[in-house]
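Feature request, filed as a ticket because there's no other form

It would be nice if the structure record came with a short human-readable summary line next to the tokens. Right now we just get the raw output. Example of a typical job, pasted below so the devs can see what we mean:
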Amino acid sequence: MKLRKFPDEALARIKELVGRGGREDRGGGSAVGKVYESFQAFRDNVQAWHEVSERAYLNARAGA
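Raw output as currently delivered:
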């Protein structure tokens, strides 16, 4: 098995579609909108942690 990264164009399109879906469902207090907003808040908070923890681990592993 060969592990490969998705092309940047595909990842950008997925991000666009996910963001569009969340924006469309946000209004009116729908369950989907509430879940999306909760996920967005979690993602925003966890990104800083990943930069510290994951980046430090990867750098140490690479010998940087």
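Something like this underneath would help us a lot:
The chain has two helices and no strands.
The mean pLDDT is 82.
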